[in-house]
User: What shape does this take?
Amino acid sequence: MLSIRNLSFRYHVTKVAALDGVSFDALRGEVLGLLGPNGAGKTTLIAHLSGILPIQSGEITLDQRSLAAERSSKPTRIAVAPQEYAFYPSLSVVENLACFAGVGGLSGSEKNTRITECLAFAQLERYAAARADRLSGGLKRRLNLAIAMLHRPEFLLFDEPTVGVDPQSRAFILQAVKKLARDGGAVIYTSHYMEEVEVIADRVVILDQGRVLKQGALTELLGASGTQLQLAVEGGYEERLQTLLAPFGSVTRQGVGVQLTLPSRRSFTSVIATLEAAGLVVRHARFGDANLEQLFMSLTHRSLRD
Amino acid sequence: MLPLHMFLALMKKELLALSRDIHGMVALFVMPMVFIIVMSMALKDVYTPSTKSLSYAVMNQDQGKTAKKLLERWEQDHGVALALPENWQDEVSAGRLKYVLVIESGFSRLLDNLGSKGTAKVRLLTDPGLDNGVFETNRMRLAAMVSQLRAEGLVARLPDKLGAAALIGDAPVAAERIKAGPRPTAVQQNVPAWLVFGMFFVVASIAGLFVEERSCGALTRLRTLGAMPWQLIASKIIPYLLVNGVQAALMLAVGIWLMPLIGGEGLSLEGVNWSALLLMLFAISLAAVSLALAVACLVSTHAQAATLGPILNVLMAALGGVMVPLFVMPAVMQKIAAWSPMNWSLEGLLDVLLRNGDVASVLPEVGRLAGFSALMLVLAFVLFRRRV
Assistant: This one.
C-alpha cells in the first residue's frame, strides 16, 4: 500500500502552500483517480511520489517503509507515466525502451525479454524501429506507457495519459490501466477527463488548493452527493421557479434551465406536480445520480479545466 | 558507484542522439575541417611568403656589367622577369604586375668606380597592395645584393697580395629556429587552432540535447529511475571525450593527408611527443565538455542553447588567438587572451606541434585547463540540481 500522511509542501519562491496536509492511500488492485483543477497540487504530489521533490513535512510510505528508503534501494517499484512525452524523440521506439531499461537496472536477456513484452503490451511491435518523434500522438502515449511498464512497477502514476490522443488509443490506454490494477498494481490516475476517471477509478481523491476536499469510493461519493433533477420550464428561469423549488433541495441556475439537487432518492414526481399546479409547463426533465463532474464542481466551484 | 549497465545505457543514448543531430555533426566534424582547409590555403603565403611567384618586370636604363650581374642574381632568386609593358606604372598600380625594378643610368659606373659621384639608384616600385612583409623582404634582399656588388667592386681594385678576395664570401650571419621542430606553416598553425575551435563546439551539441531531454521530460524519468544528478552529468562526459577524440584524429588526418593532395603543405608530426599531445587533447576535451555541461545546465530553451553556445565559442576563439594569431595582437589583447581557455589549449598544442614540447612543458596549460574544468563541473552540478 502507498500511504500519504499529512504531506505539506511550500515552494521557496512563491511561499504558497502547494500541498497542505494531504493524506490518502493507494491500494493494490485498484485505480485511484486524482482530480483537481490547475494549481490544485497534483503535479507537486506526483513530483513527491517520483522522488523529484524532497518531503518538507509529512510522510509517504510504501508498505510501511519510507518512500525515500524504497527509492534508494529499489527506485523502480514506482513508475511514472508523465504528462510530457518523456522519451528521446530522435531515438527509435526500441532504442528508447533499451535506454530506460538499462538505466533502471535491466541487462542481458532479461532486458530483451521485458522490451519484447512491453512492446507487445503497448501493441507497438510494428513500430519498434520507428523514430519516436515520427509516431502519432496516440502511439507516443503508448510508448510512454510501455516505458513505465519496463520494470514491472508495483505502483504506477499516470499523469494525464490520454491528452491529445485519438479515441482508439484512449480506449486502449484505459483498458491497459485497468488491467494493471487487476493484475495487482496500485494505480494513481490523474486526468482532466471526468468521464474517463468515472469509468476506470475505484476510488477518487479530489484536491484543491493543496488540500483534499473529498475522497472515497466512487459509488459512495456519487451516491452521497444526492440526486439531480435538471429542468427546462417554458418561460425560462424566474424568481418564482426558484421559490417553488427551494423546499425540495438546493437550486442552481444552469443555462436556460435549473438544476435541483435532491437530498435523497425521493421521487421527482412531486416536484413536477408542484410546478404544474403553479401553472408552469415543464419542457424537459432529466433525473438521476450526480456525475463526477457535478460533484467536482459542487466541491470546488470550478470546472476541472480552470 | 555508477552501475555499469546504467552508464552504458546513458552513453549509448547520448551517442545515438548526437549521431541523429545532423546540424550538430556538421558543426563538430565538417565545420572545423572546412576551416582548416580554407584557412590553411588562404594563409599559406603569410607563413611561407613566396616571393618567387610574384610577377615583376625590369626597366634597365643602365646596361652596364654590374647592372646585368645584379639582374642575373635577382632572377636566380625571384624567377625570370616579364617583358616590361608600356603602361607598366598602371599595371603595377592595378596589382597585375607586383613590382618593377628600375635601374637608373649610371648605376654600374657608380658601383664600379671608387669615388665616382652620382645619384643613380636601383628602384623597387611595387603594387600599393603588396604585403608589408613581402615588400620589406624584397627591399632588404635588393639592398644586400647591391652592397655585395659594391664590396666585390672594391675588392677587385685592391692588390692581389692583400688576399682581399677572401673577404668576400658569405656574410657571417646564421639564423635558425631553436629545436628541430616542424617548420611553422599555415597548416601547422591552422590544424591546432581549428581543432581547438571544433572541440569546443561540443558546447552547442551538448546544450541542445540537454535542453531537449529536459523539456520532453526524459531527464525527469531518468531521475525517477534512480539516476543521481552526478551520474547523469558523468554519463555525458565520456561520450563527448570520445567525440573530441574522433575530431582530433580526423583533423590531424586532414592536415597530414588531405592538405598535400589539394596543394597545401602537409602537417608534420615528426618528432612530436605523443604523450604530451594526448595529454593536451584530453585536457582540452575535458575543458570543452565541462564548459558545455555548465552552459547546458544554465540555458532553459533551445533558442538560448543555439545562440549562447556558438557566441561563447566565437568570442573565446577571437580572444584566444584561434581566429587572429596572438603575435599580431596588441599587448592589451594579448593580456586578455591569456584568460581564454582556447588560448591555453592552442598554446599547449603549438608547444607540442611546433616546439617539440614534452609533457613537462605543457603542464602549465594542462593545469589551467584542469582547473577550469573543475570549476565548470561544479557549476554544472549546482545548476543541474536547481533545474531538474
Notes: Residues 208 and 305 of chain B are 6 Å apart (CA to CA). The two ends of chain B are 21 Å apart (CA to CA).
